[in-house]
Amino acid sequence: MSGHAAPIPMTARRSGPLTGSAEVPGDKSISHRALILGALSVGQTVVTGLLEGQDVLDTASAMRAFGAEVVRHGAGHWTVQGVGVGGFAEPLDIIDCGNSGTGVRLIMGCMATSPITATFTGDASLRKRPMARVTDPLSLFGTRAYARSGGRLPMTVVGAADPVPVRYRTPVPSAQVKSAVLLAGLNAPGETVVIEAEPTRDHSERMLKGFGADLHVEDTAEGRVITLVGQPELRAQTVAVPRDPSSAAFPVCAALIVENSDISVPGVSQNLTRNGLYTTLVEMGADIEFGNPREEGGEPVADLRVRFSALQGIEVPAHRAASMIDEFPVLSVVAAFAEGTTIMRGVKELRVKESDRIDAMARGLEACGVRIEEDEDTLIVHGMGPGGVPGGATCATHIDHRIAMSFLVLGLASQRPVTVDDGSPIATSFPAFEGLMAALGADISR
Ligand SMILES: O=C(O)C1=C[C@@H](OP(=O)(O)O)[C@@H](O)[C@H](O)C1
Ligand SMILES: C=C(OP(=O)(O)O)C(=O)O
C-alpha cells in the first residue's frame, strides 16, 4: 500500500542476555514467487509458511487484480487458483506495490508479454527507485512502458501482443531483473536466455523448474546462463516456504553483540545464493552452529545456535555482495562491535534499495559515535569492540525496514539507547519483529 501511516518512533536499550528460540517468518523472495507462479499455473497452488508482510500482501492483491483467486485460510496458509501462462486479465485499477521492489519488478515481468495494459505505483520510497533496469530488457520482448521522468513510478506498461524471445545479459547483479526477464519469457515463443556475470539469488529458477517450466542453468566463462523455453503449461504446486535468512539476520546479529546471549534460530534457509552474511560472520569469529542440515521446500535449511562472540573486523570481498545484499546494514552494525576495521566492497546496489542504505547506515552510525568511511561502492566501519559503541542518537530510517531493524539491534548493545524515527516499515518484511525480539529478552519500546 502506498499510503504511509503515521511514523512510529521506537527505542532499543541494553538489557540482559538474549536467550530462547527465534522462529523467524517465511522467506520474502520465495513468498512473492509462490503467489506469482501460483497465479501463472493451471490448478490450485497451496502455500504454507507464507510471509504475511505488507510487501507480500501487496503482491497477493496484485495477483487478484490480474485474475487469480488468492485466498488466505489461516496463518501463512494460502491457496492460489491460477489462470495459466498467458491467462492474465487486464486490471481494472492501478496496481499498488507499496514498498516492494521485488513485487513491482516481478509483476511487470509476468504481465509484459500479455496483450494487456497495467499501471503501477508504490509508496514514496518505491517511487524513487529505478525501473528502467526492468523496462529496458522488457522492451526487447516488444513491451512498452510510459514512466515518470527518470524511469520512475507511477508507470504504465503495455504488454507485447506478439512477443519475441530475448537473450539478455544483466548489466547489474539483480535477481529482480533476472526474474522479470524470465517471467516475461514464459509467454514468449522459443528460448529466452538470461546471462548474469555474478550469480544472484536463484529462487525463480528453482521454483520455475518446480512448477514444470523447461529451464536449465549452465555456469560458463561468460557467467551463469539461464535458458527458459517459453509457453509451458505450469502446473500448480504445494510450496512450503522456508524461514527467511534475511530476517534471521536480525536476531542472529543481536545475539552476537549482546553480552552472554545464546539463542537458537531453527529452519533457516542456507541457499548458497543467500548465505553470504553467515559466511562473513563465521570469518569474523562468530560462534554459530549450523545443526541438522536438511532440505525443506526445495531449499537447504539448518537450525542455527548463536552465542555472543568476540568478533574481528574483516574485508568482505565484492564477489560475495550479491549473496548478502540485504544484510549489509545489519553487518555494518555488527562491525561496529568488532575489534578492527570491516571493509565492505562492491556494495553500490545498496544505494538503490528502499533507501540509499550506504548513506543511511553511515549517517546513523556516525550519530551513534562510530567512525565510518564510504565511497560510491564501499562502506568501511571502524570497530569499537564489544560494549564500545556510544549510541544515544535518533537515526533516520527513510521508509526502510532494514535500516530500522539494524539500528534497533545496535541500540540493544550500545552504551546509551538508540531511537529510530519510524519503525512502521518493519511490517513490510518482518511484522513479528518486535514480539520475537521481546520474547528473546530484548528491550524495544514504542
Ligand atoms: O529477487 C528478490 O526477491 C530480491 C532481490 C534483491 O534485489 P535486487 O535484485 O534488486 O538485487 C533483494 O535486495 C530483494 O530484497 C529481494
Ligand atoms: C531490497 C529489499 O526489498 P525490495 O527490493 O523487494 O523492496 C529488501 O527487502 O531489503
Give the name of the CATH architecture of the largest domain. Alpha-beta prism
Q: With helices defined by DSSP (H or I, 4 residues minimum), what is the helix count?
A: 12
Q: Terminal Cα separation, in Å?
A: 23 Å
CATH homologous superfamily descriptor of the largest domain: Enolpyruvate transferase domain
Nearest-integer average pLDDT: 97
Rough outline: globular
Family: Belongs to the EPSP synthase family.
Protein name: 3-phosphoshikimate 1-carboxyvinyltransferase
GO molecular function: 3-phosphoshikimate 1-carboxyvinyltransferase activity
Binding site for phosphoenolpyruvate: 28, 101, 129, 176, 357, 402
Write up this protein:
The protein has 446 residues and is of the alpha/beta class. It has helices at 28-39, 54-65, 101-111, 132-141, 175-185, 203-210, 245-257, 276-283, 328-336, 357-367, 401-411, 433-440, and strands spanning 10-13, 19-21, 44-48, 69-74, 77-81, 95-96, 117-121, 144-148, 152-158, 167-169, 191-196, 215-220, 223-229, 238-240, 262-269, 287-296, 299-307, 315-316, 341-345, 371-375, 378-382, 394-395, 418-420, 443-445. Strand 20 (371-375) and strand 21 (378-382) form a beta hairpin. Helix 3 runs parallel beside helix 5 (175-185). The longest helix is centred in the middle third of the chain and has 13 residues, at 245-257. The structure holds shikimate-3-phosphate (S3P) and phosphoenolpyruvate. Phosphoenolpyruvate binds next to helix 3. It is found in: Cytoplasm. Keywords: Amino-acid biosynthesis, Aromatic amino acid biosynthesis, Cytoplasm, Transferase. One of its GO terms (biological process) is chorismate biosynthetic process. Monomer.
